[in-house]
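does this look right to u?? magnesium ion version
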Amino acid sequence: MTILWDNEPGASDRYHFALGHVQLLGSAPLVHRALDDDAQSDLVVIGPMVNLDEASLLVESVRGVRPEVGFILLRHRLDVTTMTQALRSGFREVVASDDAPALSDAVRRSRDLTARLAGHQSGGPAAQGRIITVFSAKGGVGKTTLSTNIATHLALSNQRTVLVDLDLSFGDVGISMQLMPSNSVHDAVSMSGSLDGEGLAQLVTHHEASGLDVIAAPTDPSLADRVSAQVVSELLRVAAAHYDYVIVDTPPSFTEHVLAACDVSSLLVLIATLDIPAVKNLKLALETLDALGSPKESRVIVLNRADVKVGLRDEDVVQAIGAPIAVSIPASITVPASVNRGVPLVLESPRDPVSVALREIADKHIRGRFGTPVEDTQRRSLFSRRSR
Ligand SMILES: Nc1ncnc2c1ncn2[C@@H]1O[C@H](COP(=O)(O)OP(=O)(O)O)[C@@H](O)[C@H]1O
Ligand SMILES: [Mg+2]
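got this back:
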């Protein structure tokens, strides 16, 4: 059942198109009580006239006890301050109150996420280890640089490694490694439900120079929509059963594909840079991960272009995000140069300071963590901790 917190008469009718039948309530204590009384209530939509501070307090108090409950905030006007406060408090979405289609979409996404979280709480299948997702909510910060180089270095170190490009619309792993993939993540769709080692082998393109296998993004961006989150989970789980390491490159937002990847990952590599928007996005991403129940100890934060002097210092970033930086990567012209040549930097110039830092991520933070046999109990999903 969906709860609508709104004081205006006729509110249930106004949003009927997007929300269907709702329980209309007029105050935070009433919403609280309704959530306590009914475990089936898993979506709360908060009307445009409700005070944001009061709404935020409610979300903050509920999200620790019932993380599967989705909150959507309606506002007459969307502005950055409101969005930031709302997302920080744990709202899943902020939607303009007169945009019924956007509200419908937000409701659908929230229900999907609730269903996935509920699946985990009832003890969904245990994930295998060694799926590592490289993520940042901002573009151009170095996700593809990190994922291709970390994966290449692991492959060069004789670890069976596959790199999966989940930036399904704009993926550039193939091109930055000079590969000509004939298949892509999209080809997993037709094998959905029965993907096995043989099927997996058909999806990969082999990078001769390093021994790395790559599953590329589709060349046609419109195919991204045809790949469901379920296909992504299946693909990554099957890959984890056949390789030592599965490295996942991502688009710059929490798409359903990214959530599915985080969900089966044992480690997230998150990227910061020394600019305010990137730090803000990282902070929001960390808070979103917290709200989803992802354990802090399964994250490694990397500062890319760490030596660029732009007014922000490492300490400012650490203070803003409230988490330590594991590795700092310097800025260097050698990085775009290697991308243009289509040869990963760790392969082309292993002594370059950027390569040294990238190897440190792979050797210390990935192999150091997973290199020794991992007990099954330790190989758990990032989100499974809530189910304990
Ligand atoms: N440490 C670095 N020094 C210099 N250029 C870098 C560095 N890291 C990334 N770049 C460049 O920045 C651009 C964006 O990097 P990329 O890895 O594609 O980011 P993302 O995948 O997050 O969008 C690329 O041109 C890349 O060569
Ligand atoms: Mg990229």
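The pocket of adenosine-5'-diphosphate (ligand 1) is lined by residues 136, 139-145, 304-305, 329, 331-332, 335-336, 339, 354 (CB under 6 Å). idk if thats expected tbh
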